[in-house]
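quick one, 86 residues, struct below
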Amino acid sequence: MLGLPFHDVLVRRGEPRPQAEMQNSAQQVANVYRSFKVKAYVPETPVLLVDDLVDTRWTFTVAGLALRIAGSGAVHPLALATARGD
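---
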């Protein structure tokens, strides 16, 4: 609808434990760190990173970092819903 190109470039490595099981932020980031891999060419332009449901937002941080390291432009996260209601 927006006319934006879609690039399927991220793949999840394994299935981390639910973030709700983690006791603190350090455990949350460790839980998702290295859980995403860039599998294809990433455009050097800004990207819109969409997630259906966010809880701690560490997934956005880690996936965004992977995209930036792979050469993307600015990463703009968009969550469709939040698990915590905040």
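The chain has a mean pLDDT of 89.
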